[in-house]
């Protein structure tokens, strides 16, 4: 929703002065919704990936998640361009189709066709890298991971003065689009997830982390713009692990509400359609670039919100979900360790009995999870988790791990109970 609000502002749909001021104040920082998702994506993928997963299965699941929706919206964007007699550059269209456009600094190319898909181009690069780097992440000392968490916001802060060394015209692409630069946010989430997985994360709880996020968001309006991205990366990396930990510990979280879970599920599709839908309607009605007068602007925004949610729900139900079931490989379910023989007098810990019971529930058993919309605050929800919902700015589910026996006291990695991904 942050990205939706940001684009409502950049398209200048609302022209009424008071309403326009509210939109500007609330969503000036909305572009950071993509930053939030990059961090969250790295966190979720490490939090939900189990050792022994084959690389090709991981890559296949990721492609099965993002490509069906991407190809459909890519084709829809080309149809809209044909309707309005817009010129189509074959190179740009092909770069967009194969999700390599973010590597091309040529103005107009990285935002070509369905322009929001540039973030999928970055995500595809992250997906390719993670299985290759994850073994080193698992072996890394916790001090190295903490160094990553501290260093990334500082690197983001240094990018603003550093971009002055670039050729004029490449600054925006380098800081906002270039996959290598944007991957720093992804690796921030990766490091935090591994620390939490080991029981070494020392961030605040969810209430305090949420309060700090709100303070940063409000205070940013009086802070120089070049510091926004660095400060928000800190705020996001406090909230995301706090939400996951609250779920693991069974604490109350506002993000378990069914409505928020549903919004998280459809948010990937929502992200892909929202700009295309608003731009098309505004061009058809003659309001593109000029907005709507009076209070018709805010009403139009509400209408766009409902329309995009309806289209996203249809895309999620009739394209995204069935194509994932058809294209994604099945997860191999590890055998549940046998309980000690009671006849020998061996006591079975309560945690082990719970693990065996839940593991026997079948391949679709779930322990709990978080559902977050791309560009919306992170949240955690119990039940019905699907870690494969990670893509672009889409809905994300975080499976809930538990402590492995006395592993939490010993500082060992937490252990997952039962399958974490039905695919």
From TrEMBL:
The keyword Lyase does not apply. The chain crosses the membrane at residues 25-47, 67-85, 116-137, 144-161, 229-248, 260-279, 299-319. InterPro entries: Acyl_transf_3_dom, Acyltransferase_3. It comes from the Bacteria. The keyword Disulfide bond does not apply. This is Acyltransferase. It comes from Micromonospora antibiotica. PANTHER family: ACETYLTRANSFERASE, ACYL_TRANSF_3 DOMAIN-CONTAINING PROTEIN. Residues 2-316 form the Acyltransferase domain. Residues 382-423 are annotated as: Disordered. Keywords: Acyltransferase, Membrane, Transferase, Transmembrane, Transmembrane helix. Pfam families: Acyl_transf_3. One of its GO terms (molecular function) is acyltransferase activity.
